Amino acid sequence: MKILKHQDLPFKAPYPVATIGNFDGVHLGHQALFRETTKKARQNDGTAIAITFHPHPLQVLRPEKTIKLICSLEQKIKLIEKAGIDCLLLLEFNKELASLEAEEFVEDIFVKGLGIKELVVGYDYRFGKKRRGDTELLKVLGKRFGFEVTVIPPQKVNGLTVSSTLIRELISEGDVALAAKLLGRYYKLCGKVIPGHGRGKRLLGFPTANLKLSKEKLLPKTGVYAVYVHFDSKRLPGVMNLGFNPTFGDGYLSAEVHIFDFDGNLYDKNICLSFVSRLRDEKKFTSPEELAAQIKEDCRKAREVLKA
Q1: Directed axis angle between helix 176-183 and helix 164-172, to 10°?
Q2: From its phi and psi, is residue 198 left (phi > 0), alpha (psi between -120 and 50) or beta?
Q3: Which strands, in side-by-side order, build the sheet including 2-4?
Q4: Rounded to two decimals, what is the model's pTM?
Q5: Do domains 2-160 and 186-307 have the same CATH topology?
Q6: What's 244-300 look like in SS3?
Q7: CATH 2.40.30.30 fits 186-307, yes or no
């Protein structure tokens, strides 16, 4: 997949078919846009193009309201490429771009920049200064500038309309199982393994890998989770505690994962955790022995969940 920036425009490609959005999470709704975009491009021996923004527009427009991302930029790019998109136009979202009127944005990016033949958007797509542009305006501008507009209806799972906002809420509440259904995959958290206190193996009999947490990435609700751990092309089952270790009074947030039937050294390795199911709340135990007994029960439950 070719990655373009604003300075690479104008960009000439055979029969360009584009879709546009923030695509945080690259969830089932976004995947429907990519399927339609690639289908139309392939039917015309054309080029499937996705247009997205970095940083997330809300990080610029509402800096006082910190938004935690479902996907890092790196994850988002990999998922978009996996969806079959040929070119990704990555626009820097800044005050200048935000000030463009809807008509100016269409003419600058879609028409002069890419020369699109078709545009695929979601039913609720808004764009331009103060989000004044909508799908109806796009259809009007499409007729003016000579491109077709296809609007994709909402994608529903269990009666719920798939959206990045809803998925953020579910993950924040710890409902990673339902979030996975809306994403079309497990929610994933990646980072480097860093040294911990060494209590897992020494005191409790359960060695753990401690993950360095990103400040931008959305974290699930604290608690204990059944997870898959990815590293070196492996996927191993495990159980993870995300929390403040109240039994030991650490007082800071940490992510510790015990990988079943694994005894290697992961320090400084980059690993990813796929959240499958939340098992319980984090709680304070009266002794390390009581905590060890609970971890043993957590492992049993996690194995059952992952086996199922």
Answers
A1: 160
A2: left
A3: 2-4, 87-92, 47-54, 16-20, 118-122, 148-152
A4: 0.92
A5: no
A6: CCCCCCCCCCEEEEEECCCCCCCCCCEEEEEEEEEEECCCCCCCHHHHHHHHHHHHH
A7: yes
Q: Which residue's structure tokens are 């009666």?
A: 159
- In a 10 Å sphere around its CB, with 0-12 CB exposed, 13-18 middle and 19+ buried, how is residue 282 labelled? middle
- DSSP element (H, E) containing 48: strand 47-54
Average pLDDT per 10 consecutive residues for the chain, totaling 308 residues: 97 98 97 98 98 91 84 95 98 93 97 98 94 95 98 97 97 98 96 76 72 88 97 95 74 87 89 97 86 92 95
DSSP string of 70-137, one letter each residue: SS-HHHHHHHHHHTT-SEEEEEEP-HHHHTS-HHHHIIIIIIIII--SEEEEETT--BSGGG-B-HHH
Instruction: Please tell me the CATH code under which domain 2-160 is placed.
Output: 3.40.50.620
Q: Which amino acid is at 135?
A: T
> Both tokens of residue 228?
């898959």
For residues 172 and 161, give the distance between their C-alpha atoms in angstroms, rounded to a whole number. 18
Query: Would you say 281 and 261 are in contact if contact means Cβ atoms under 8 Å apart?
Result: no
Angle, CA 25 vertex, CA 125 and CA 139 arms, to 5°? 15
- Reported in sequence order, the residue ranges of 153-269 that DSSP labels E, i.e. its strands, are 156-157, 160-161, 187-194, 209-211, 223-231, 234-243, 254-259
Domain boundaries, the chain: 2-160, 186-307
Please give the helix or strand (H or E) that residue 182 lies within, else none: helix 176-183
Helix, coil or strand: residue 47:
strand
What CA–CA distance (Å, rounded) separates 47 from 63? 35
Q: Which residue's entry shows tokens 């969940």?
A: 305
